[in-house]
## 1
Amino acid sequence: MPIADKDLLTLLKQDMDKARSYQAELSAEREKHYRHYRAEPYGNERPGWSQTVHPTIFSVVEWMKPGLVEVFTGDFFAFNPVLSGKDPAENKEAQHRADRLKRYVRHKLFNQLGGEQLVEDFIHDCLVNHYGVMKVTQRDDFDLTTELLPDMSTEEIEALAASDKTIVDVRGGKTFTRQDPLTGAPVTGLRGAKAVRKKPTYQGFHLEVVPPRELYMLPGYPELGKNPFVAHVVKRDLDSIRRQEMAGVYRKGSHAAVSARLDERRAGDDTASEFDTLHSVDGLSTPEMLGSGRGDGTDSPARRGQGEVWVWECYTRLALDETKLLKPCIITVCEDVILRGPIENPYGGPPFELGFVYKEPHKPVGRPIAAVLDHRQRVLSNLLRNIQDSAAMSTYRGFLTTDARARKILSTMGPGDVSLVPSLGTVQELVPAPGDPLLLNAFQLTLQEVAKESGVNENMQGLDNNALNQTAAGMQMRLTAGMQRQKLYARRIARSFRKILARILDIIRLYPPEDDVRIVGADVAVEHEDVMGEYSVSIDVGVGPQERMESAKLMDEMIHFIHTRNLCNHDNNLDHKNSVQPGILTMPVQFGPQGMEISSGFHKSLQPVRNV
């Protein structure tokens, strides 16, 4: 027996209230961390003194981005077929199918979905917030168009709607009556009616970087997949609800039910302050403030006419059949109105993957870089202010006087000005002590502590002003140590991308491609056998600059070795049992996640080899 809407709302409201409270706590922390990332003033600044805030967090985040974005926008993943037989031809064909599927996924991801921007946004959220959120779903995006129909009888319109699946509704028109020329019976029809057609714009798997403020969940669950209640809360207008209703996604009457509750709609106070901060740091007002025209955040009549509401897409578990077993389901709610569901969740759980850079075990959220470096940024800001104040006092100095006129003259005096004071005896110049070098030392030491905590040092940035006084080996050692941390961060994010790609494969199997099996003009083709195959996902986090340098150096050694030993001119001396073609030197080369690796024994063979 289906659950009544009233009982369903009662069940959901308990979880929704808990999720809103948890989101409000996370939102307050995100707002604070974002202000620190943007190097906003701390509030302890004094007029007339330095008010600089050192952008420690901003610098670390922006220097960590390039390497991570480069890794996950390149050729970083592969689908490996699960081989069941030992037939070489069959295994080769399975690998071809995996390669075709990979090209198809890359084409959809980077050409149709803007994958580079998605990757950069996801990594940014992983660095700045507690976590980044990637939503992986099947999307059938469409647009609704209208087409004027000729004069047609009611039976003809019904037959047209039944035969043309793109027609979702027929509206308007005036009723007319005419005689059937064959039977002479009166026939009723419509003149000037319009057919509403559903025009597909995109079909296939879809990736969306969800702002953390839109993801609601219950606290206390380390894994999102085991959380009993997760919701994606977004703001939509009434036109969007009407279109979804006309397309058959939402229930009939959803638009009217939500419109009747506009005056009683709830305000989105859970993340309102965070949303305001995103605009205020740039000196801008939020759209709500601009829309009201009064600056008090209330809705104007025009805004109410537009009808923006909060839509909750809830992923939970309910007993939907006679077995009474809890099953994953999706319910869409807006202002105590059930728009859709409950329907069975085809994804088996919340279709979200979280990404972290700093993550402690058994905790549901990660730790933002702003939380790690907050104290360091405060210390560096105070030291930098002291250094600037000390430099300003040493440059401009100051005066003491007991005469009011002298004070007025000296206060407006600039560099190179000649001022007339009543008496030099009433004026005394202040000569401050020279700046304490301990401030500069403390500043540099704190920067080193930041490098230890973040893994981002001057050598990685190319900003080390003492590089000329250091050995190449020492600089390489610091660069290698820093890249070890970067690799660890990349591997942590790679875990999320591995799960994301696994979800993409599941969606492709669940919804096999129809409209773009063959993509014209591109080297992309996917067959039914490719989709139904069994694959594992592997992620290559790439190599850092020093590994590239070492690989290039090794290749130079190989070329130099071949050239100097003149092996290519002595084909006849090679062992023909190894089936080596003339002019080609074969080396046992392996490719792994760390780049190219030459089998052991090659370096040893460089020395004892003699000219033949």
## 2
Amino acid sequence: MLNSKTTLFLTASLLALPVFAHADEAPTEVVVSITRETLPVSKLGQSVAVLSDADIKAYQSLFVADLLTRTPDLSIARTGGPGTATTASIRGAGADHTLYILDGVRLNDPAQVGGGTNLGLVSTDDASRIEVLRGPLSTLWGSGAMGGVVSITSRTPSQPLEGDLRIEGFDEYGSARAGIGGKTGGLTWRLSGSTYNDRGVSSFAGGAEKDGFTQTTLNGKLRYDFNEAFSAQAFSTTSHSRGDFDGYNPVAPYNFMDTGDFGKNGNTLSVVALTHRFTKGEQTLSFSVTDNDSNNYNPNSSPNYVANGHIEAADYHISYRLTDATRLLGGLSYERDTMSVAYPASWDPNPLPLKASSTLASVYGQVTHDFGPLDVALSARHDDASSFGGNDIAQVTVNAPLSEHLRLHASAGQGVKVPSLYQLYSDYGTATLVEEKSTTLDGGVDYGFDGGLFSVSLFTRSVRDQIDFVYDTCTLAQPYGCYGNIGRTETRGVELELSKDLTDSLNLRGNYSFLHARDGNGGLLPRRPDQMGSVDLTWTATDKLNLGLGLRHVGEALDTAYTGMLKAYDLADLRANYTLNDRLSLYGRIENAGDSRYQTAGGYGQTGRRVWVGLQAKLF
């Protein structure tokens, strides 16, 4: 049954939907590129949420994880305050079943346990757009895109000279971001950087010692158009961070407690690309290198974990319009992942690191045909991995407009996740692991009405050969457990979305989702809330003043089989922006305005009420 809080959120999310809606015009079209071609959302067969540049500025969040919670059916698990280990689950998918992309390059770290992304280190920094696709897209993006894809696009100048500065903070936390760039003739360039400093909160929920976090990021972006047909691009970003965290008592009873442990992370991503545009399409050849260093230290500053993850990748992608009704796209990719991990100790301060590597070669393609108003896309992919051999997957999506304001969309597809190097070759690894594979069916309806859009989506997903940590299939040399292909999970759910201009100056966005996530034995999957919802109101009070209110409800979820359930919680945020003149604006927000005490991972504390005040300036 729905409790009172659930009823309140559903009512707020749906209050703007009229019983009978008559529209004079369709809602403004939104265009995305997450499907590896630029298309309107109304032409897609899958569900996509878009956070535009205006949204990112209005919501004022400094980390991508906080922005993502405003999209439907996405939950966050964070082991403390800012900068701590953070994962996201889309539609109940596993933490490493969502692929994160920055300007077309995967944000993976081969040295992590699942080979994925620590979302806690991904700041909004110079982001101008974030697209979130719910559902698989492994046929086009490869391993990891089983549950969804998050694509982040960095800012690109459009004027001869642009400069911007944002400074914000209060009391024990603050951030500064700056950028400069321009577009002159065929040359487009931008340099940007950011710094973040936060005294933090105790990672241990019962602790008094604060665990701080600092991060510095630098970005460079360059593009040169030789003519209308040829262009070259280069992009590089590097970040360095230091974060405190809590650990376990080194003596009995070995309980979780305040400690002086800390970690340092260095991440660098660089890519160069050549693009050729022709009458019926374009083709791009790119090369990228990603390097991730992660070191953890004891309270006495001696290291206890030293890791490096390295990726070298090459990608060729082409799109071609065969006829007015038929489009083709496809490509080839090659990736080499390398991991180095060592565990120094007082009795062995310089151990030989465990080193491992793997390669993955792929070919993929998609054909899209417009049968009148009906759009059908069929895609397929073949992977050849050095660790387990070949694998083939396929997907089909359908978009069916029924009228000017009503459309249906549906998809059926497979997703894949390659075993990580850690899962294969660490002391807990199993070299015979095979890839995880999912099958997803989803469908939905979008109804556009005067000043608004209402959507309903349903999905079901099954995962087989899921990789879990086990104890009963390990070798004698693995007395403490190992990784094995034994898991099977089933998830299904319903998603409701609404956006509506209540008046010329008041806009409402809302979503609510119901999730049923179970393992092969019918047990709850950990850290997957059964219900989630959010409501956001934006009011243009005057030509200079904008005010906003955000509400979020997260239902109860299993933490682990040993620690029990996580309680449901509610959060409220307030924000304001005041334009002083054409160049300056003041802004501020109150995060967790109700000072809720909650946990997204059992035993780990979260930030309480926080006040931020900021100044934004256009320098040129």
